[in-house]
Amino acid sequence: MPKVKIPRKSTLVDMTAMCDVSFLLLTFFILTTQFRPDEAVTVQTPGSISTAKLPDVDVFTITIDSAGRTYFGIYDHEVLKKTIISAMNDAYDLKLTPEEIAQFGKVGGFGVPINSLKAYLDAPAFERKEKKFMTGIPIDTAHNELGKWVTNSLDAWYIMQGVDTKKQPTVAIKGHKAAGYPVIKRVIAILQEENLNKFKFVTELKAKN
What global pTM score does this model have? Predict the structure, then answer.
């Protein structure tokens, strides 16, 4: 008696629809993701058991490296940064071009004195982290440029928020664990001169004992 041959069914699965969905999701995430600009300098912060996180927007970050050099950064709000640099341009007569002002809007953190700012903005992005530029923002009482950056940043931020706003930007101090106390104290004093008495310290999470 002949054997009955059972017809084999194809095991191929049409993945076209699945691929279409995958590419749609990938495209969506690429278009909606905001990439954070590089920080001016990487520092090793002190350890802490705090799990609090900084907000994603409206954060002014003051970074202090191990040598006590200070850096300032705003990692969102390109329009805000253009407003800030325009005010600094007027205050110091920097003679920045529209292209240089637009370039500053793309900068995350920086640590250059005012007199080097024009050359810094004219340099290619990969050269801006070189030591010749990253000498730190002056914070001494005779040349308190950090205070000027904070002042103009606050003014620009409040203008964008509206005069009746009760909000306040988050100010974060990100100090290297080897940074000297006098530098931290001076930065805090500069913030207090602007009536900024609430700020956050950025730390690394460490395990509880």
Answer: 0.78
Would you call 170 helix, strand, or coil by DSSP? strand
Residue 171's H or E segment, with its range, is strand 170-175
Instruction: Provide the pLDDT confidence category of residue 130 given band limits of 50, 70 and 90.
Output: confident
Q: Which residue(s) pair with 61 in the sheet? A: 73, 172
- Residue 35 pLDDT more than 70? no
Write the DSSP assignment of 18-77 as a string of letters.
HHHHHHHHHHHHHHHPPPPPPPS----PPEE-------SSSEEEEEE-TT--EEEEE-S-
Closest CA to 176 of 65, 69, 48: 65
> CA 86 to CA 136: how far, in whole Å?
21
**Residue 173 DSSP SS3:** strand
Query: How far apart, in whole angstroms, are the C-alpha atoms of residue 92 and residue 78?
Result: 21
Rounded percentage of the chain residues whose pLDDT exceeds 70:
79
DSSP 3-state of 3:
coil
Kindly report each contact of residues 127-134 with a partner whose C-beta sits within 8 Å and lies 24 or more positions away, as own/partner: 129/38, 129/40, 129/41, 134/40, 134/41, 134/69, 134/71
Give me the pLDDT at residue 49, please.
78
Question: What is the C-alpha separation between 53 and 197, in angstroms, rounded?
Answer: 19
Element (H, E) at 201: strand 200-201
Q: How far apart are CA 177 and CA 197, in angstroms?
A: 22
Q: Is the dihedral of CA 124, 63, 146, 91 positive or negative?
A: positive
If you average pLDDT over residues 40-51, what whole number do you get?
A: 81
